[in-house]
Each structure stands twice: as structure tokens, then as C-alpha cells.
Amino acid sequence: MNKNPLEIMHQLSRMISQAAKLEEVYEIILQEIAQTMEVERASIMRYDTKNHVLRVVAAIGIEPEIWRRVEIQVGEGVSGRVWQERKPLLIKEMKGNDRYKTHSFMVAPVTCFPMKVGEVPVGIINLTDKKSGSPFTEEDLKLLTTISDQVAAYMHLYDLVDQLKEAQAAKTQLEIAREIQQRLLPRVPPKLKNIDLAGCLIPAERVGADYYDFLVHHDSLLSLCIADVSGHSVGGALLASAFRSCLRAEIQIVREPIHIVSAINKMIFSDLLQAEQFISMFYAQYNSQNKTLLFTNAGHNPPLLLKEKTKAPEWLLTQDSLLGIEPNLEFHQKECKLDSGDLVVLYTDGLIEAQNEKGERYGSRRFVESIRQKDPAGAEETLNHLLKDFKNFMKGKPAQDDVSLVVMKIK
Fold it and tell me: Are residues 224 and 292 in the same domain?
């Protein structure tokens, strides 16, 4: 052993700075330790935070097919106890163990001390089988402990770099998903005789893949759709894009909502199954000639119908399943009559389920009362009033999920 600790640290720093991946860091560290300590067998074990076990991440003198299967419970065996107690251990004579050439064994915990965090256990380093055949000494243990403390700092820094990369990747994904989501939404609602329309999306910190649309068939027939994809980030946004394409393709031929929803479910089922996701959807057609609304609700939050004459809320439900449960689901539809002054408000669960700082939910009751307070009002005024009330309720706390709203008022 010709190197002093300072030389070893300098050599490790120089070599680790050239490593591209954390796996390479493990190998560099272990090679340097094995060469410095002049041993034939060595291993680094890291704590698996998900499964709560110690796993070998690099080894010398042990067959890969063996060390890759090794799992040590915390507190079990020499390695498990050293990790738990965070104290180095020197065994000069390990009796009753014929797996090693010598019976001398050293284990040092790898524990870093980041500022304001305290001890953070990372893993352990195991050494055995000194090439000289002699047992390890207290000086050997002291050197290994010094090295392991520095190794902990390297590991922690690389962990932070990985976390930063993941955070940056997540941020990039979020930006992409947001761009996809915004491109799916109508820029302005269509102008139709005797129908006042408004719609918006309030983005949350995480993208929720909400979608809404106004679809004009001809002067007297309008379709409304609102949907919520269960997945988040880019995956959910891409599924929303696929959903929109299916919807736009299906409405080229005017058919009743029950047939359109059924066809979309069949078309997109395989994508949903593969992604292990679902879509809630409300789809309706309003005929301005006879003032009837025909709708199918596939597992979506029931839109609110507020009648001008009675002011009594009605919830538009058909008790149908989410899209993506089965490919050949049977859906249902209902019809209701609308009169001048009636309001229909579509929304996603980000509104009703939103919680303020006190843990209170916005809820259906406040939702209805907020709309009742703005009377009489057009679609845009009703939408803005509802958004203002929602903002006051949240008191600056960001929404946990996207909030989408569509308001239709019959003139």
C-alpha cells in the first residue's frame, strides 16, 4: 500500500470526473479501493429505497450472476448491521466460513453528511481476501473509512445530478404536453344564432390532459364535448390528441351521441389498454330547431343544467362507463328540452375536487351557488364569474389538476 489518502482522493476525483454514468463511478471507486488495499474481493452495496434492501452495484472477485442476485435485509448479517448502525467493522478472524481465502473481513458504511440534512446512509463497502494472505489491521480499517466517507460524497453528488436530470426531463415533458394540450383546444367558440358559448382551461402545475371542443355540423346543430384522460404529462396529452382525431373523424357523418361514443371507444381502446389509462367523456348534440339536447355521459362528471324558470339544478347523467374498460361497451343516451335563458355548464373534476389551504373541496354545492349568483348573464360572463369565485376559494393555492369549463347559454 504505497498511496496515502490524499493521493487516493486525488486519483479518484480525476477518474470519476471522466465517468459518464453512475455505474462507471461504482466500478472506478471499487477498482481504486481494491488496488490500494491490495485485495482480491470487494463489493459496493447500495440501499434500495423502494424495496428496503441492500443490493450489490459493483463487485470484484465475485461472479456477476451471483452478486446481481444478492439482497441483504437491513439489520441482517454483517453488511446489514453495519449499514444500520453506520459504524465500520473489522473482523480479523471469521470462523466457520470457507467461502474466502482468508478469514479477515472489513465493512465500512458509506454515509454522507450534506448540509442541513444530517446523515444520509448510502450503502456499504465490503473487503476481504488480502493478496498477502494476512489479516486486515486497524490502519486498514481507518483508511477504508476515510475513503468511504469521500465515496459517499461522490455518490451523493451523482444522485443529485441524476435527480436534476430527471427534474429537467420532467419539466421538458411538461412543456411539450402543455403545447400539445393547448393546440387541441378551440381558440374561439363558434358564433351561432340563439346560442352563446364560452370555454377555457386553467392549467395546473401538472398537465392533466383535459380536452373540450365545440363542433358545428350546420346552422342548427352543434356538438359539445369535454373529456379527461387519466394519464398525465406527454402520454396523457398524446392520448388526448388521438381522442380528438377519432372524434373529428366520427362526426363527419352526423350520428347520435350513443353511436359516436361507442365508435370512439372501439377505435381508441387498444391505445388505452396498452397505456393502462382511461378517458371520461361527455358528448352532446344541441338542435336549435327543436331546442333539444341529446347526450351520452361516459364516466364523466355530470354537467350542470340550470333552468331559467325553476333555477333548479339538473345533472346530465347516463350511468355509462369510462372509455377503455372494454372494447364493445354498450352506451346510452338521454334527451332534454332547453328553453331561452337555460345554462349548460361542462367541467372536469379538477374544479369540483380542488382543495384550498384548509383542505376544503370546492364541491358541487358551491359550484351551483356560484352560477346562480350571476343572473342574468351570458356564457362569457358566467364563465368569468365562476373562475373568479374559484380563484377566491383557492386563495392563491395552485390547482392540483387542470380545470376545464364550457358554458352554453340558450338565447
Answer: yes
